[in-house]
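Posting this for the archive.
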Amino acid sequence: MPLVTMNEILPAARRAGKAIGAFNAANYETAVAIIQAAEAEKSPVILQVYSRMFGNGKAEALGGLLIRLAQKCSQPVALHLDHGENLEQVRNALDWGYNSIMLDGSRLPYADNVAATAAAVRLAHAAGASAEGEIGHVAMGDATALTEVESACQFAAETGVDALAISIGTAHGYYQTEPKLDLERCRQIGERLPDMPLVLHGGTGTPMADVQKAIACGITKINVATEFQHCFLKNVQAGLDALDGKFSPIDKFMDGPIAACVEHLRELIRAFALR
């Protein structure tokens, strides 16, 4: 089926008290695993491509492949620029067929974040795409800044975002210690913004019980990158170890890692949908 925007899947999930997985594809195999998992679970899904790949030419080439895979999928699929760094990346994503974008201005002063995000929203909406922004800052080797309730409400109103990423104690990548989510903060933001799909970045390694409590507070989109891509790499390594130096055609060899990733993603999709 044709690509859908996040606006076509996230509001319904918010009303149903469920969340949709947003998984980062980096190559054909990880993309196929995401699509196959969505098909198997009969679930919408968000295919994400990280901003780093928009600076080296990979996102343009990969985007064409992802669009073809999504169009062959019987389930709704959105194609999303993850953590866009600037308006040039937003414009490129929209030009290349991505129908959902995020401008990450969370490291900027509040006013600059609003200005940059609002500009990205205008570009996205003019192209018929959806837009995500972030208030507060989810750490990636730096300091986390939890989202203030009033700031979240003001930011949503001033930018016009379709989905709002908030910081409630998660971090990108693997945790050194078990995270402690500020679920009360999440609940308050969810109550003040009852129609806004809230986004949880840093899904990797977050205890599922806490994730599901956050879903009950309004979290509707959950980003998973490190955990998923590590699953792929681990299974590639396991396959190489099993070959013990023998040859295997690459296309056949990759069937094993793809299948393992599909099962892993299916578990996450079910958990996010509270099934």
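The beta strands are 20-24, 45-50, 77-84, 100-103, 130-135, 163-166, 198-200, 219-224. The radius of gyration is 18 Å.
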